[in-house]
Amino acid sequence: MEVVEALLSGDGERKILAARGLCKLTSKQKHKLAERGVVEVLVLMLHGQEYETIEAALLALLSLASGSERNKIHIVKSGVIPVLLKLLQYQNESIFDLAIAALLIVSSCTANKPAIANSGAIQLLVETLNTNSNSITIQTKLDIISTLHNLSTSHQIIPSIVLSGVVVSLFKLIYVYEKSSELVEKAVTLLERIVSSSEIALKETASTEGAIRALVEALEEGSPMCKEHAVGILFLICQSCRERNRGLILREGVMPGLLQLSVDGTWRGKETSRDLLLLLRDCSGGGSRRKQWKNVLLEQAMEQIDADERLGMGLRMVEETIAKLSA
To answer: Where are the ARM repeats (predicted)?
Structure first.
């Protein structure tokens, strides 16, 4: 095949043209190419100094990896990870974005995750996430979070992710960006994945200044999926040390958003919000009549919401309960 010949024995210009041509081939043709030594040639091209050579090689590798677990494994075994990490220091926005995209696509393959984690990529990705640079696009930050999420599905890698400082980095994004944005949704999703698997990460989240307030805001203003994951984190925080964290969560004004979510959230969002409502009740047995009255109101609201949902009346009960609890 002409593409193979040009990549294996052509000069610099022919290699670039062949790498670009590879992206136009069918999936079946790409499978055959990967078995004939082109992956190793493309990885070698990444060591070049010319922008066009590096870009063409990255696009070709992305094309080979797309939809093929076998090619993803082959690419990583060919030594691409250290080269990609080096390219993250390349002074070109397009190359930087393509290198991140390449890490994302190969990280989706289970067999590649240990090699990526052992390469030092996690620390570099987390540091990059909060770089104060306008050159790092929203899409690139999304790709970084998605790469970390891919890696987090391997339980053995969770400790490395936690030690990288990811909790603080994610909260920096949650603080700055609109709670309804896709970026905050992905950040909260990854955060719940991590805190549900690591007690260290959960404790760090609970003790991070402004974290509970940010999660309450995400619960109120985020997308449906963002709200679901935000309430999941708040539930884990409260469950981990109810005596200490119950008051912290209540002081951030969680009740209106929580009651609202118990009616119009996703299925899991509704279930988790109701579980959290139960944890937030004052079960001390003492206290003022006002506290006891609020607990009765809350229990009545939860019972009524279950009944009214069938009739589409849950929202009215939430609004009435919020007004009474705020009085």
So the answer is: 79-121
